[in-house]
Design goal:
globular, mainly beta, 127 residues, four-stranded antiparallel β-sheet
């Protein structure tokens, strides 16, 4: 059974960099079945997609966060990471890692939503 587990500090000070790691088990992040995503949910708010890294290492980040966000991977550890710089209290949220499922159907790649999720980790930005 595929599992995703977020890890990282639960408290970050304003202006510092938030760093989270997602460890994936029972499947390789180099398989073409998924793009590996970061999503967050602020207190009382909705889900916000942050970005993803593909199985070949290309990254795509939300335009609203692009200037502050870096997503990378460590293939030897089957992990991918999120770094969000210059954080403010507005970055306080539960951060999730997730897998966006893709499948080759009818001659094209189709995307079927996030079918793999970590449990989420609360990151609070406060001095």
């Amino acid at each position: 059974q595929v599992q995703l587990q977020e890890s990282g500090p639960g408290l970050v000070k304003p202006s510092q960099t938030l760093s989270l790691t997602c460890t994936v088990s029972a499947t390789s992040i180099t398989n073409d079945t998924h793009f590996w995503s970061w999503i967050r949910q602020p207190p009382g708010g909705g889900l916000e997609w942050i970005g993803y890294i593909t199985f070949v290492g290309n990254t795509y980040v939300s335009p609203s966060l692009n200037s502050r966000t870096s997503i990378s991977r460590d293939m030897s550890r089957n992990q991918f990471t999120l770094q969000l710089s210059s954080v403010t209290p507005e970055d306080t949220a539960v951060y999730y890692c997730a897998g966006l499922r893709r499948a080759h159907e009818d001659g094209a790649w189709r995307y079927h939503g996030m079918d793999l999720w970590g449990k989420g980790t609360l990151v609070t930005v406060s001095s």
